[in-house]
Design a protein that fits this description.
It is an enzyme of class 4 (lyase). Homotrimer. It contains 10 helices and 9 strands. By secondary structure, the protein is of the alpha/beta class. It has one domain: TIM Barrel (Alpha-Beta Barrel).
């Protein structure tokens, strides 16, 4: 059975180590992509998950990769191999899925763009584990059991690291990051809709900066 390469794992580990907070970004207006992501980077967050939840996701990835080369720019909400190929072409540096299928896991083994597969259960985790994956997105975190579930996973899957996403807030992020098997936390609170709609980029920068500060208190 083909196994995940060490290089692939090291790339994913580098992404998760680059920032404890990973903003889940849905671009409603393409013109907002670069200034929004620049505002997050100015606030100290340099890992950007641009989702395919809107029609602008692919083009936003292209533009942000060119405009902010110092950041890690990846694709989220990838649900098919076709989308995986599209985000590869767009220049994504990592791929995050909300769940797993055998075909996506196997495609990720040979892709030059590393995969962080999403899981919500031990059974899903085991599909990826059998192929050599050891880093996973835990989604939807709060609905799927939150911190108690992650603590339970640490027993049988002692060598697995998670990035939980879904229902996490600035106030609860620190509690998740305190777990030994959590490397980073994803969340949409880092891009409040009202600030984005108002194009309040300094406000976004402050949200990013203050969210990072909460982690050190």
């Amino acid at each position: 059975m083909t196994q995940l390469s060490n290089d692939h794992r090291e790339q994913v580990k580098a992404v998760l180590a680059a920032s404890p907070l990973v903003p889940v970004i849905a671009i409603r207006k393409l013109e907002d992509a670069v200034p929004l992501c620049r505002a997050l980077v100015d606030g100290g967050i340099n890992v950007l998950e641009i989702t395919l939840r809107t029609e602008h996701g692919l083009e936003a990835i292209k533009q942000v990769r060119q405009a902010i080369p110092e950041a890690w720019v990846g694709a989220g909400t990838v649900t098919s191999i076709e989308q995986y190929r599209q985000v590869e072409a767009a220049g994504a540096q990592f791929v995050i899925t909300p769940g797993v299928t055998e075909s996506i896991l196997e495609f990720g083994l040979t892709s030059e763009v590393p995969l962080l597969p999403g899981v919500a259960s031990a059974s899903e985790l085991m599909l990826g584990y059998a192929l050599g994956y050891r880093e996973f997105k835990f989604f939807p975190a709060e609905v799927a059991g939150g911190r108690p579930a992650l603590k339970a996973f640490s027993g049988p899957f002692w060598d697995v690291t998670f990035c939980p996403t879904g229902g996490i807030t600035r106030e609860t992020a620190r509690d998740y990051l305190a777990l030994s098997n959590v490397q980073a936390v994803g969340g949409s609170w880092l891009t409040p809709a009202e600030l984005v709609a108002a194009k309040d980029w300094p406000g976004i920068t402050e949200v990013a900066r203050s969210s990072l500060e909460v982690l050190t208190r």
